[in-house]
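Homework help board

Subject: predicted structure for assignment chain

Our instructor gave us this sequence and asked us to write out the predicted structure in token form, then describe one feature. I got the tokens but I'm not sure how to describe them. Can anyone check?
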Amino acid sequence: MGEVYDPDGNWQLPGPNGIPHAGSYGGESSGSGGTGFQYDVETLRELMNEWNDLANEFAKDLNYAASLQRAQGPGDEYASGGNAEQIRASGEALHSTLTAREQYCRSMAAKFQMALGKYATAEDTHATDVNQTGGSL
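My token output:
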């Protein structure tokens, strides 16, 4: 099995125009020297909503994990108790995993929301600049 992708790592990927590193996708954007994705406002909003929807699904699934965490054996013998103990342990692991997935999705949605805010700020700044020069949008 190969290495696991780490977004904070210093990955080097072969490419025809150099070797981009982790977190730098695409080519240079608008001569700024930076790299990255470029999305329009509709795409940013849709991606934010999709990440939030996925987080909501994980949150709903936490109810199923809670049911497993409360499992009781059908009888008083060792086998029933041992089986229930294993089911509760699985419920704990599932709960922990679902919580982590939900948090990840919420953080991704927040990143797209922050990008929307930056987009709106940039639009306002450019509109002000155009209006100050006597132009119109």
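Reply (TA_rk): Your tokens look well-formed. For the description, you could write something like this. The helical segments are 41-69, 78-132. That's the kind of observation they're looking for.
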